[in-house]
Structure formats: C-alpha cells, structure tokens
C-alpha cells in the first residue's frame, strides 16, 4: 500500500553487496553483487578482498535496485544498513554509504542487526511475523536459536554454536572431499544420491546433561574427516555421496531436534528458519516433517532470501519506521561483534538521540543531491 514505508536496505557484512527496497512487507527490489568467486581459491572469505569489492559494487548496486523497484532515491522514507555483526571493514563500507545517501537525501538512517534482519525477511514471503517468533539461523557465520518477542526491540538468544557455524561445517567437509567452496550446495546435491544412514556420525551436544539449545559441529567435522582419512589410508575409495548424505543428516537432525524442542519448551507454535544453510533441502524436509508432527507451523523464506541480501535489511528498516523507532544518529558505526540482543542500533555516543533531519534536508536539497 502506498502509505506503507518505502525503505532501502544495504547489506555488506560478508561477501555479498546487497541492496533491497521494500514497501512495508512487500519486496520491490533485491539487487546483489557477490565477490564469492574472488574468495573461492582461498577456501573462505578474505576480508580485505570483500571490502574492496563492496566499495566497487556499492553505487551500481544501489542504482540497480532503484531501477528494479521503479522508484527514485527521493521517494524513500528511510535508509537501513547492517551495523553488525560481520567483518569490520566490510560493514564499514555499507555504513558509510548509507550515511552518505541518508545525509545527502535528508532521510532517516536506521542501523540494524544482521541476525534480526535474517528473521524479519520472512515477512516479505509469508506476511507479518507472529510475536513471539522462534528462529533458527544457520549460515557460514552464525548458528543460533533466537526467541523474538519484538523483532525491532527484543530478541533473546536461546542457544548458539559453541564452535563452528553449521555452514562452516559444510564448507570444511567439502574441502576435505575436494568439492570446492562454498560447500553447502554441492554437498546438498551429492547427498541426494547417497544413503543418509550409511555412516552413523555423531550428533553433538545431544546428551542428557548437555545444554538443550546450544550446538557443536567441530566433533562431527573431526569424525567425518577421520572417517575419510581412514578409508584413504587403507587405499579404499571414499563413497562421497554416502559421506555427504550421512554428514548432512547429522547436521539436520541436531538443528531440527533442538529447534522443535525450543518451540515446545517456550510454547511457541511456529518456527522460522533462515541463513544460507536454510537453503539445504534435507534440513527443509526434516524441519517440515518434525514441525508437522509437533503441531508447529514452519516458515522458511525462499533460498534467495535466506542467504545474505539487502531486502532483509530493508524489511527490518521498514518495520522500524512502521513502529516509530527512533532513527540512528550520524555517529552510527559498524560493530563487528554487535550482540544479537540489539536489533536496532541508535548510533554513537548519544544513544537514542533523534537527529534533526529537516535541517539535513535543507543542506541536501540545495547542495548535495540536486
Ligand atoms: O547466509 P550466507 O549466505 O552467508 C553467511 O552469512 O555466512 O550463508 C552461506 C553458508 C555457506 O557456508 C554455505 O556453504 C551454506 O550457507 N549453504 C548451504 C547451502 N547453500 C548455502 N549449506 C547447506 N546446504 C545448502 N544447500
Ligand atoms: Zn547472514
């Protein structure tokens, strides 16, 4: 609807330069420039390479998003940007760009949390999020179970990985199997032709005395690597498809088991899954099966909205505007370890101060963006 906030969101926390535009909970544009190919030969994201790629991609990606949405920068009601967590240098490029556009255009600036954005993006696919929402976020950088009574102001950690992120485990196992980077998509594909019960790999932190909602993938990773090594040492062929399927089964089993349990314990009757690993076909299928059995409604955005993108930042920014949250001030800075409990970042030394945007508009109108 025309009276809903029109917000542009910028995401640069890792290797994706994402610029999205939404109106309320409607997606208008989702432009992405990825530097993933530039990192492939290193087997992981190189921060300096990512920062430079963001710098080069920023303006063209913003222009592309505006064209795709059929709006001009002047039409926007606000500019949102990932303030953290993520790679410090990469975040800084996005925050600087967002500040420059917001200042020049006289628009309010909203520094938002990357993890809360991963949750909020589901509004673009399935409509307003019920409150509270239980969310399982699984990607190359994070694996957490979060309870969000209010996505703009109150996000509570239930559990997190104590070592590797789920996506990191996929990437490391793919490296051991010489399958390239990133590992998730190729393991997913090979696993479809393998037997998930061929090898009984360990399920980390599932003992009776273990923390109920925390994850651990490093033991699984070591067990898979040792299993492969033993076959190679004995001169036997490694059944790559069975290894991929059995490894993937162990990850999906632990993630879905703990997420469903958290919903039941907290009396939450729906679960959202986000982050790059939410694209995994077995995780999606197992979650659907277990949620249905437990009477829990499952919400998983389409894969393009699960991986890092600008639309998710715009979605959370629009929610901030809709709920009259204060804009961030011009001291807003990137915070590489921004806690998940801060969905919204007010700014620098004067948290909560609302900037005088009318004044900024005066400057911009005449001098900066005309
Ligand atoms: O959310 P994302 O794009 O970036 C981060 O914030 O990390 O997630 C990337 C991660 C990588 O580790 C990648 O291997 C994993 O998500 N991934 C998958 C699949 N597609 C991407 N993991 C398992 N199955 C997939 N289909
Ligand atoms: Zn992410």
Question: How is this structure best described in words?
Answer:
It is a single chain. By secondary structure, the protein is an alpha/beta fold. The chain has 2 domains: 6-121 and 309-367, 2-Layer Sandwich (Nucleotidyltransferase, domain 5), CATH 3.30.420.40; 131-303, 2-Layer Sandwich (Nucleotidyltransferase, domain 5). Helices cover 44% and strands 18% of the residues. The chain has 13 helices and 11 strands. A hairpin with a 3-residue loop joins β7 (143-150) and β8 (154-160). The longest helix has 27 residues, at 240-266. Residues 114, 118, 139, 141, 275, 308 line the site of zinc ion (ZN).
Assign the CATH architecture of the largest domain: 2-Layer Sandwich
> In this structure, how is the largest beta sheet organized?
6 strands, mixed
Rough outline: globular
**Could you tell me the strand content as a percent range?**
15-25%
- Level-1 CATH class name of the largest domain: Alpha Beta
CATH topology-level fold name of the largest domain: Nucleotidyltransferase, domain 5
Radius of gyration, CA atoms, in whole angstroms: 21 Å
What is the N-to-C succession of helices and strands?
EEEHHEHEHHEEEHHHHEHEHHEH
Q: Give a list of the ligands.
A: 5'-O-[(R)-(carboxyoxy)(hydroxy)phosphoryl]adenosine, zinc ion
Extract low-pLDDT stretches: 350-370
Give the termini separation: 28 Å
- Under CATH, the homologous superfamily of the largest domain reads ATPase, nucleotide binding domain
How many structural units, i.e. domains? 2
Number of helical runs?
13
Subcellular location: Cytoplasm
Domain Gcp-like: 27-314
Family: Belongs to the KAE1 / TsaD family.
Protein name: tRNA N6-adenosine threonylcarbamoyltransferase
